[in-house]
Specification:
12 helices, 349 residues, two-stranded antiparallel sheet, 17% strand, alpha/beta, binds nicotinamide-adenine-dinucleotide
Length: 349
């Protein structure tokens, strides 16, 4: 299956399905006909996976970065830029990112700034990567003061989402991806009941289509794209608090699942939706096996404080919320209301 991301200035395809990684050589021929070299950016663990056979038909080098989030910093950026310069990579050559969201974000950012921008192809290997991170052109790295504080918009020239690569994913990584899939399902106002008729590949495809359509309509997040942050105000705050304790405590999608259950309760409190919408959210999260407990160590005050500092919060408490007229960003929500809903939410679970 090919899903088009139709941007204002150009269009690229997301190839979805078993064996999609084998489309790399063809994609390069069509989208980067002048390329002589490709740099495959990945990690050692991934390089040793049984599915790692990436053939570009070009002069191919592999550049290894640390595993997961620990690769996503400016030190890795500098190391990679130097590697590319030493190998005399030109404007026509291409970076191929093979990995989860951490690697596609990092490699995408390097592609955005090396020689003021070279082509990048994403081959996302996690569910989060396939349904979210690798699509839409947001790239970047973390600073020690916070996640994703440095970055650039840089759209890939193509994305290969190969379901074969997901076979080796741990249960936790799978669940994390399901958190983003739940978000897509709920953004489309779909019923929990219909989930049972969907295969995993149907869910992946549906989520990619939603993201591709939204990015096509609003590449730089001037409006509609903000809806993709549904559930994310609380999620980012919880991730920040968890990260201070232990890097492995909370995966992004796990945090999103909690954020979704909370956001719909806030919408109920603000009289934007009725009880049935809350019940449907709970049923969707249950059906996908997503837990949504607040960590006992997170105090409500700390959570509210962290939400006010979210990069997208513009210094007040803002949330994407469902309403009778659809999803919208609600700014300046009263912190006391947020606190009350959080207290009740904690008690409920
Ligand atoms: N740019 C965006 O729009 C966007 C969207 C969502 C998330 N993100 C970013 O993505 C990152 C999270 O990405 P992630 O959840 O994919 O995690 P990740 O990239 O940190 O990968 C998690 C772990 O899974 C391992 N792994 C990857 N693929 C595997 C496979 N097929 N089999 C076995 N193990 C595999 C990795 O080596 C790593 O240890 C965060 O940094 C987040 O900020 C970006």
């Amino acid at each position: 299956v090919r899903i088009e991301v139709a941007l204002w200035t150009r269009t690229y395809d997301v190839h979805v399905g078993a064996g999609a990684r084998n489309d790399l050589a063809t994609l390069l021929r069509v989208r980067a006909p002048q390329a002589k070299s490709v740099a495959i950016i990945t990690s050692e663990a991934l390089l040793n996976m049984p599915w790692f056979e990436i053939e570009s038909d070009l002069d191919q080098t592999v550049l290894l970065v640390p595993e997961g989030e620990s690769a996503k910093n400016l030190l890795s950026v500098e190391v990679l830029l130097n590697e590319l310069a030493e190998r005399r990579f030109s404007r026509d050559d291409v970076i191929v990112a093979v990995g989860g969201g951490a690697i596609t974000d990092l490699a995408g950012f390097v592609a955005a700034i090396y020689l003021r921008g070279i082509g990048v192809i994403h081959v996302p290997t996690t569910l989060v990567g396939q349904v979210d991170a690798a699509i839409g052109g947001k790239t970047g790295v973390n600073l020690s003061l916070g996640k994703n504080l440095v970055g650039a918009f840089h759209q890939p020239i193509g994305v290969l989402c190969d379901s074969d690569m997901l076979a080796t994913l741990s249960e936790r990584e799978r669940l994390s991806g399901l958190g983003e899939i739940a978000k897509c399902w709920l953004l489309e106002n779909r019923d929990a009941g219909a989930l049972s008729e969907m295969s995993m590949s149907d869910l992946i495809e549906l989520s990619i289509r939603l993201k591709a359509n939204i990015v096509g309509a609003d590449e730089y997040e001037g409006g509609l794209r903000a809806n993709l942050n549904y559930g994310h105000t609380l999620a980012h705050a919880l991730e920040k608090l968890a990260l201070a304790r232990d890097v492995d405590e909370l995966r992004h999608g796990e945090a999103v699942a909690i954020g979704l259950a909370f956001a719909v309760r806030l919408a109920l409190e603000l009289e934007l939706v009725d009880e049935s919408v809350v019940a449907n959210h709970d049923a969707v999260l249950d059906a996908l096996g997503l837990a949504r407990r607040l960590h006992p160590k997170d105090s409500i005050d700390e959570i509210v404080e962290a939400m006010g500092h979210d990069k997208k919060a513009h210094h007040d408490l803002s949330f994407v919320l469902p309403s009778e007229e659809g999803f919208k960003t609600v700014r300046g929500v009263d912190p006391d209301v947020v606190r009350n809903v959080l207290e009740r939410f904690r008690g409920e679970l």
